[in-house]
């Protein structure tokens, strides 16, 4: 087998008519929302939460609180492992891309890609490889980080996206966060963690560093994994689009933290045991998601790592040798 591995990108609009493709990763949050008889109302409620939130954040020249609307696309990334004998294709990444539409002027602002980032290789690392070791392997996350780096350097990424991604997720329940005096008009007040979590180190292998901010009106800080200058490289509208999207998903599947009835204190330790929270009007199966992560991790082991792991590692690391 040669080392000629290339990426391809497909996009699917995420709206109330969204139906997961047969080859879509079942653990993605958007796929989880789009199931069952009430799927359309479920999606409509989630999208309404996002649009309400972006208008709360971008409130100037917005007297009715309805000036902006988000348009979301699911970005599906396949990796083609080519050889003279076969052409194996494996879905490596899915994430959301966000545009912000000004309904008053008709203008459109490019948002930030990276929302709801998910990865088969990450499922394999956390659901198969990590439980199979007595400790954390020294090279844990190396291959995933290298594949991610190769994707950002690819012509396919650069032709479609003008800026690096920002991956916004929940803060870790294993860490304590302390509020700083630093404040950003959209991101809100900054927090700092008392140490690195396993997720911080894993995303570090992807050459992403983390900052924690709690936007105005939020119940808890969000973790923003990024490159470059988070506060100055992206427009206010783009940052608001990411916050509105990801805070909504966090409220849906981690309501104990992000839909809590009491906002995070100056010194904050997030907990899923918090009982003082409200459920949003959106159905989400967290048990199924956890089970599917293991299932898809094993799928990755059988269909990617065992047959193609060696060539994948050779290709991914060749540039950095």
Which helices and strands, and how do they pair?
Layout: E1 5-14, H1 29-33, H2 39-57, E2 68-82, E3 87-102, E4 108-110, E5 115-119, H3 120-129, H4 142-153, H5 155-160, E6 167-170, E7 177-184, E8 188-193, H6 198-204, E9 209-214, E10 222-226, H7 236-253, H8 255-258, E11 267-268, H9 286-318
Antiparallel strand pairs: 1-2, 2-3, 3-4, 3-5, 6-10, 7-8, 7-11, 8-9, 9-10
Descriptive notes:
By secondary structure, the protein is of the alpha+beta class. Helices cover 36% and strands 25% of the residues. The chain is built from nine helices and eleven strands. The chain has helices at 29-33, 39-57, 120-129, 142-153, 155-160, 198-204, 236-253, 255-258, 286-318, and strands spanning 5-14, 68-82, 87-102, 108-110, 115-119, 167-170, 177-184, 188-193, 209-214, 222-226, 267-268. Strands 6-10-9-8-7-11 form a six-stranded antiparallel sheet, sandwiched between helices. A hairpin with a 5-residue loop joins β3 (87-102) and β4 (108-110). α2 (39-57) packs across α7, α3 packs across α9 (286-318) and α4 (142-153) packs across α9. The radius of gyration is 20 Å and the shape is globular. The mean pLDDT is 90.
């Amino acid at each position: 087998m040669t080392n000629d591995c290339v990426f391809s990108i497909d996009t699917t609009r995420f709206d109330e008519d969204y139906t997961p493709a047969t080859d879509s990763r079942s653990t993605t949050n958007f796929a989880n929302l789009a199931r069952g008889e009430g799927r359309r109302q479920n999606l409509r409620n989630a999208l309404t939460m996002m649009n309400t939130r972006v208008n709360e954040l971008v409130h100037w020249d917005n007297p009715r609180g309805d000036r902006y609307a988000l348009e979301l696309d699911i970005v599906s990334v396949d990796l083609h492992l080519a050889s003279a004998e076969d052409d194996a294709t494996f879905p490596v990444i899915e994430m959301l891309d966000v545009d912000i539409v000004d309904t008053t002027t008709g203008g459109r602002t490019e948002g930030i890609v990276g929302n709801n980032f998910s990865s088969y290789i990450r499922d394999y690392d956390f659901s198969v490889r990590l439980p199979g070791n007595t400790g954390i392997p020294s090279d844990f996350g190396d291959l995933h980080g290298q594949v991610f780096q190769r994707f950002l350097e690819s012509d396919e990424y650069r032709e479609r996206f003008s800026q690096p991604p920002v991956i916004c997720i929940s803060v870790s329940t294993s860490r304590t966060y302390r509020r700083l005096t630093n404040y950003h008009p959209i991101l809100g007040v900054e927090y700092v963690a008392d140490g690195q979590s396993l997720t911080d180190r894993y995303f570090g292998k992807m050459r992403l560093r983390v900052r924690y901010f709690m936007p105005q009106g939020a119940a808890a800080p969000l973790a923003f994994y990024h490159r470059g200058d988070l506060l100055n490289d992206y427009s206010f509208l783009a940052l608001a689009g990411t916050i509105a999207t990801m805070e909504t998903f966090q409220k849906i599947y981690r309501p104990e933290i992000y839909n809590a009835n009491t906002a995070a204190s100056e010194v904050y330790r997030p907990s899923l045991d918090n009982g003082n929270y409200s459920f949003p009007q959106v159905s989400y199966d967290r048990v199924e998601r956890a089970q599917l992560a293991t299932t898809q991790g094993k799928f990755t082991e059988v269909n990617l790592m065992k047959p193609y792991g060696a060539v994948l590692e050779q290709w991914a690391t060749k540039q950095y040798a």
